[in-house]
């Protein structure tokens, strides 16, 4: 189902009216975590004015330490819904447990499956119970084959609306959080008809790497970008070091338009 050999044309996934793939870019931006209604609405308005077409924000957070901020949970989801109401931007947020699938199906426009859950096959199989599009992140150490097979699980379970997301992989390098695998973009586009977007924020882990890697991703043929933007990165509860300020995101989107036209 995932294989380009049986589906030569690019798949275009419709996220509540926003097309992704086949030349349509997903421009997803927002904070790592939902912290408060004021925070999310302020960022949502700013990124929308810059040209973003979807809002991201984690309500359920997969944190390395159990003592780190775990997200606002369902309260965070309600805040995202309020931001959608205010701005019209479709919302993208991570689902960690099948327990919340029904409520995500009802409220979330694009359901994110995080890198750590890419091989949670029980969760993947459950996703056939919704037709909501799924943003499937590449696992921290997943090969292309493993990543494609995880997409196959979702499609085989009955949900054809899958968008892939390259977010960097674990390598021997420790200077950056992960290593952005730019080659995955042309490889995945060769192997599959599904759209592929890039998350340069989690790849590099440093805000100043986001701009060059976002541009390189678009030049390499990515179908969009998911970028962490925060109005106060210094005080962010999660991933401040890799978050762009709204002004920087604005400049980046202006510069990306020309690159996208040239691809
Ligand atoms: C995120 O997007 O906030 C996130 C946790 O990403 P990943 O699953 O790629 O680490
Ligand atoms: Mn994050």
From TrEMBL:
Residues 13-256 form the DAHP synthetase I/KDSA domain. This is 3-deoxy-7-phosphoheptulonate synthase. It comes from the Bacteria. The gene is aroF. Keywords: Transferase. GO terms for biological process: aromatic amino acid family biosynthetic process. One of its GO terms (molecular function) is aldehyde-lyase activity. Its EC number is 2.5.1.54.
């Amino acid at each position: 189902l995932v294989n380009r050999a049986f589906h030569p044309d690019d798949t275009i996934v419709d996220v509540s009216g926003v097309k992704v793939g086949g030349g349509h870019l997903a421009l997803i931006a927002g904070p790592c975590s939902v912290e408060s209604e004021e925070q999310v609405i302020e960022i949502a308005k700013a990124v929308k004015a810059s040209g973003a077409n979807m809002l991201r924000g984690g309500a359920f957070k997969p944190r390395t330490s159990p003592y780190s901020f775990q997200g606002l949970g369902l309260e965070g989801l309600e805040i995202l819904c309020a931001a959608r109401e205010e701005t019209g931007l479709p919302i993208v947020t991570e689902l960690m447990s099948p327990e919340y699938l029904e409520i995500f199906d009802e409220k979330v426009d694009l359901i994110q499956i995080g890198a750590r859950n890419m091989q949670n096959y029980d969760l993947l199989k459950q996703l056939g119970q919704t037709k909501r599009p799924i943003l499937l992140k590449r696992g921290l150490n997943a090969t292309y084959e493993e990543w494609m097979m995880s997409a196959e699980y979702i499609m085989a379970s009955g949900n054809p609306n899958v968008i892939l997301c390259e977010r960097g992989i674990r390598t021997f390098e420790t200077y950056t959080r992960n290593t952005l695998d730019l080659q995955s973009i042309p490889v995945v586009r060769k192997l599959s008809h599904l759209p592929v977007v890039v998350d340069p924020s989690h790849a590099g882990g440093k805000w100043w790497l986001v701009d060059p890697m976002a541009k390189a991703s678009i030049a390499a043929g990515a179908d969009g970008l998911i970028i962490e933007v925060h109005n106060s990165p210094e005080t962010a509860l999660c991933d401040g070091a890799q978050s762009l300020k709204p002004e920087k995101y604005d400049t980046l989107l202006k510069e990306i338009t020309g690159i996208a036209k040239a691809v």
